[in-house]
Predict the structure.
Amino acid sequence: MLGGIDPVVLIAALMVASVPILLAAIGELVVEKAGVLNLGVEGMMIMGAICGFATAVSTGSVWLGFVGGALGGAGLSLIFAFLTQIMLANQTATGLALTLFGLGFSSLIGQGYGGMKPPPIGPVPFGPLADLPVLGKILFSHDPMVYVSIAVVAATAWFLKKTRKGLILKAVGENHDAAHALGYKVVRIRVLAILFGGALAGLGGSYVSLVRVPQWTDGITAGAGWIALAIVVFGSWKPWRVLLGAWLFGGITVLQLNMQAAGSWLPVQYLSMSPYLITILVLVVMSADRSRAAMNAPAALGKNFQASR
Amino acid sequence: MLRIEGVTKAYPGVVANSDVSFSIAPGEVHALLGENGAGKSTLVKMIYGLVKPDSGSMRFRGATYAPAQPSAARALGVAMVFQHFSLFEALNVAENVALGMENPPPMAELASRIRQVSEEYGLPLDPGRMVGDLSAGERQRVEIVRCLLQDPKLLIMDEPTSVLTPQEVGILFRTLRQLSAEGTAILYISHKLEEIRALCDGATILRRGKVVGTCTPREVSAREMAEMMVGQTLTPPERAPRRDWGDAVPALQVKALSVASPIPFGTSLKEIGFDVGRGEILGIAGVAGNGQDELLLALSGELRTAPGMVVAAGVPLGAAGPNERRRAGFVAAPEDRLGHAAAPDMSLVENAFLSGAIRKRLTRKGFIDRAATRAFAEQIVKDYDVRTPGTWVAARALSGGNLQKFVVGRELSQDPQIILINQPTWGVDAAAAAAIRQAILDRAESGAAVVVISQDLDELLEIADSFAVLNEGRLTVPRPVQGLSVDEIGLMMGGAHGAEAAHA
């Protein structure tokens, strides 16, 4: 089955391919841990993609491009935060609307950016390490964002597990009434989480338009936001499992492209649908245990909070 | 230590507290007493900094006290144990404790301090356990230990015993006495008068947001306190002598009812049989979890059985669903008010419709008759003194006691022939409980057959004509209440197995 596919190249490629969904999924994980379900990841990613692309092209700096992408995603998430946290709109409907709005708005901004090239980004110079056989190619041949994304996973895992602020964030997502009774600012914490999630989704989106593709076309994120949402559930709201999930999904994407090129006997459609099949399977297995704690889902996920007297 | 002067707080449509004043000395256990909706919770929320008073002043340990938020109150030494626990089920004990503290030490140190404090006060706790796995009593310990770790000067307890077993209440009281001996002032909110008499040094009584009296609980009777709370003399329910309706068949017959429990870890019903005639009230006692919920489900039609197991006026209805039974004159009020007896997010009007549609004919050609439904809901609110801004509010916005009044009132107002009630006065204050009992008696007098399931023995003996005990899914043979001695009741409650063995 691997005929004509070099496993070293494949692993190296999947690490790059998984960066956008990894960043978006980690952002969404933090949002959901705070008890908010933002289904607008796809919209925030594509806003990040165009904002990042536009910034990079006009400033000539790919780094400013990433900043612009993060700001674009966070800006769109601010609308979501206002609607759901202040106006108490339904989170599911608002998230879906956010995606539709993001897809349309990004395509409006993106007029005139078609066919342009963003400034290039090179691999991190690891010197002799990059020349190591196998390991050099897999671990030390990537652009900085690959390492940044893994650092973000580590930082998020540490924040949620070790810090007091992380504990408060989890508490808000677990039982907002109790958190409020203890005097924590539920709405403020959730808005900050939503902004963080938006920024990471935007960053992931800008990686697509600045590094992966790299150019601007309408609908460039092609459903990556939905995969990111699935990975959060797949990883049962744990950062390191989300990393595994992102590699799995990224790997399958790469494998499917390679197999297409290699002329596989297995119709590629089966491979393309396999990430989603696996997600469904994992969900079924995990929800077979009826207690919600077994799935590790935040108990207040998707529920709006209103301070009562 | 704490002095409150002329505090007033108004919400749109209701004045929660009006010119409330009282004070607590160091080491004093002070009770705040009042009916549901008397303003106790609002008052303590102000002391804890969750709500700001509109006017009035508070002084704490000699200084002006106006906490902007709970953390400010905690920093000054005010701690609170909540009525509905403010815990996080998916986090462990130590994390829960840390969340309630201003400057928690590192987790390892915190865990050892939790062990130390919990042993010191006789409240065993394992800091590493998930709170979701703990019992109600253990959860309360988490809250108390959380408070104790901050070395509180004033501890507020909002209805702490409503979820505890008698043994757990005993442990709690020992802890509270130890604390008060160490000089901690305790503000104790409850409407369980006997507990207050056993524990408290002083009491302030609130009615409709105003202080109506103070007393020393040890020196007055529970009845006197109840009357101060209610503001009127309490009359035990009146009962007219039972009429003989001269029916050939009883209104409700249950014959050899056996059915598996649909509730996980529930109790299956085994060979239950009894008759209830018109005008008769059958009281069913027993410790919770012995099949009470299942029996109510089987009688109301939510759980279906063989047709002949439940027979109403000679018609077999065991296989009929709830609506068919309602048509036949059944009404049912299950124990769980929020979620089972009422839909939490729907308004009182909508909730009135849900169970009253059939018997009150609230539909016209398949559409809801809005005007009639609203009138029905308003009638319930008026007749049963449900304290609410209006019938448009969501069921969840009502306090537990008020919702109970609404749910029971809704069922009793449907001109029923057969009434099934589980825990009719659970969480309801004395005056409302008396009103509900009177309403049940009135219905019976006008010819309804009533089955009351309750864990309150006094209540059953007060209103029931016949009495039976449910034990591990089996029912003892019902006996007339008149002439039943306490010893015999004890035997029925403990010896259901013996009776069963004698049958076999």
